[in-house]
Design brief:
This protein is of the alpha+beta class. Helix content is 45%, strand content 36%. It has helices spanning 2-61, 65-68, 86-106, 116-120, 200-203; strands at 69-73, 79-84, 110-115, 131-154, 157-173, 178-195. The longest helix has 60 residues, at 2-61. The chain is elongated.
Length: 209
Amino acid sequence: MRKKGICVLVVFLTFLIILLSAFFYTDKNLRLIILEMSESKIGTLMSDCANTAVNRAVKENGIKYDDIVRVTRDANNNITSIQTDIIKLNEIRTEIDYLFSEEMNRQPEIFLSIPIGTIIGNEYTVGRGPKINFRLDLSVNTSTDYTSKFYAAGINQTLHQICVEVSGSAYLLSPWYKTSIDFETSYIVAETVITGIVPETMADLNLNK
């Protein structure tokens, strides 16, 4: 009788160990899948929203290079200074931040649909079986800055670009997991080719400094 009880206990413990091992394996695999799919999905979403926000701001404000940059020259037509309208740029930056938040808020609820076969992790079951839906909650923080970039464009010619840098983090919450996804992208909002030699001190100009 005692021997039978020991056998039952061994079977029970073995079953429990197998069950716990399967649970932790599935949990670990599911976590990796959710994070990988979320990074791809959320990264694309934020990039699209940022692109739409910048395009709207540029179009609605009719931004042109001469509106935000002033190039001055001396009597010999040498470049003496390149000045940017920081007030105008800050107004545009504020609008981009607002439009980005508006675009993100317009997005419907975000779901990940993961087949059970993918969760199991076997190469023969990936993409197969019924799908489990996971709803994702996002909390997004963004910041917008500008950079001034100079590139050689020919003899005594320099391409000057004003770029907006949109960066931020999306804090992702799901029923079991949470993580953050970093986001950074750059867009050209104005550019022109300057004829004449641009002094090195100006070529190193960065609007964020």
